[in-house]
Design goal:
The protein is 42% helix and 15% strand. It is α/β, with parallel strands linked by helices and 254 residues long. The chain has a single domain (10-245), classed as NAD(P)-binding Rossmann-like Domain (Rossmann fold, 3-Layer(aba) Sandwich). A seven-stranded parallel beta sheet has the order 3-2-1-4-5-6-7, sandwiched between helices. Helix 1 crosses helix 8 (220-231) and helix 4 runs parallel beside helix 6. Belongs to the short-chain dehydrogenases/reductases (SDR) family. Keywords: Oxidoreductase. This is SDR family oxidoreductase. It comes from Paenibacillus haidiansis.
Length: 254
Amino acid sequence: MLNIDLTGKIALVTGATGQLGRVMTRTLARCGAQVAIHYVSNESKARELLQEITEAGGRAMIVQGDITKEADIRSMKERIKAELGDPDIVVANAVVQYEWTSVLEQAPEDYVSQFESCVLQNVFLAKAFIPAMTERGWGRMIGINTECAMQNFPHQSAYTAGKRGMDGVYRVLAKEVGAHQITVNQVAPGWTISEKDRGMEDLNDASYVEQVPLKRRGTDQDIANAVAFLASDLASFITGAYIPVNGGNVMPAI
């Protein structure tokens, strides 16, 4: 029987208090990882997650910072190292939220925010955390991308531009650090059911699911399961991958 065992590993999840991030955090902790719970403003949720993990017998800490600023990420690195150690697993989940509209109406600063949170966040995380992974000869960089990067639908331009830029960074980074047994992969969720959706009468919107081969929306746990798998030794020979977790709604071509 295969088992995802992250005992002895240290993981950082950025945007850990978000709808998907909180489930990734819980899942990595259940797999045995010590977890650094990053937040930017939702301290109450970060403390709730910390209490939940520690009461279950796990080890965790909370860390605040703006992931678009290199100085904040370097400060986060020092705080995590002092309390838990150098992370073996970095999950880049945080992204700046904004109001979507057409290319002609989208504010230029929205493109900047997406570049900073999708591209520069990952550059800064790599610079901060990959050197220690290199010394150990083991590491995992896991980025949360999106099916939107393949769909290119109206009103998605800033988000799509940021995530496609992120994709380029990850593919290049995978080739640069692979010799050190560091894998670099992306999970691309579709329109996912999360805690804020549960309790609604109709979770499987007909106009969306009719396009999905599995005829349903995925859940936050589906995304977290993919992250946990990529973080484990079961995925030790997978790198440079963009993996949709969306029931087949988008399918990368060969």
